[in-house]
Design brief:
The complex is a heterodimer of chains A (122) and B (170).
Chain A (H helix, E strand, L loop, with lengths): L1 H26 L4 E6 L2 E7 L7 E7 L2 E8 L2 E7 L5 H4 L10 E3 L4 E6 L3 H7 L1
Antiparallel strand pairs in A: 1-2, 1-7, 3-4, 4-5, 6-7
Chain B lengths: L1 H25 L15 H10 L2 H18 L6 H22 L4 H24 L8 H34 L1
The chains are: A alpha+beta (122), B mainly alpha (170).
Chain lengths: 122, 170
Amino acid sequence: MNHKILIGVISAIICVSAALTYLAYTRGGGKTAEVSSDGERIAEISLRNVDSPYEYPIEKDGHINILLVEEGKISMKSADCPDKLCVKQGAISTGVYPIVCLPNKIVVKINSDDSAADAVSR
Amino acid sequence: MKATKRLCLCGILCAAALTVFIIEAQLPLPIPVPGIKLGLANIFTLFALMYLTPREAAAILLVRILLGSIFAGQPSVLLYSLSGGVLCLIGETLLLRLIGKNFIWEISVFGAMLHNTAQIICAAVITNTAAVFWYLPPLLIAAALTGAFCGLCVSAFDKACGERVQKMLK
């Protein structure tokens, strides 16, 4: 009988651990921003060792989106799209939610390289 | 005669555990999380717990950890090994009393988890960073696998020749 309790405890620990591991890996946030347009990767920007924030313009099919690159995070500074949802979203620093500019078909997401280590060193 | 046999068995277990411990330290593992290892040396601690007394198991464990950290050339890891090993041994001793040796692999899994938890707590105290605990979940999952493997090794041995060992020690 006792061993069944132990199995239960072990299973519970494993489940919680799996959830936390998943969390650590997805939220850890590697520090490379990948910009893609229409599913095609057009730029990759390192978010490490950014001494001073700078602007990164993206021109695609006559539309202009301007990204603001800062240490560890990236945001859409301005866009010539009508709704400006991507600008309102603000800066992202983790891989959880990408910045999406639907009208201009621009997606900015952060890729995790060694995210577990980042989760720890953050 | 009996005491000599026991002492002899302890010595053999120490030597075997030490050998496995050192060979294992040379093996690189293709996993990016630091701290994951197979923990095969724990097989011998479990073995000692099953056939000898907890005191003898503790002696084997301590000799293995002390000599192992010297032979492997990393005395700095001594504290990690020691904290993990001791908590693991205490846990496994108690569980063996509670559950019995029919479910040795479960005891081994739990022991491995205790081992990693103690090491992480130790690391958090030494480095003074709570963020080290992010390493714990993947380590616990690894512990479940490696612990189960070690436990199954011991239970396979017990099925094959456990009675002979016990007869030998009588």
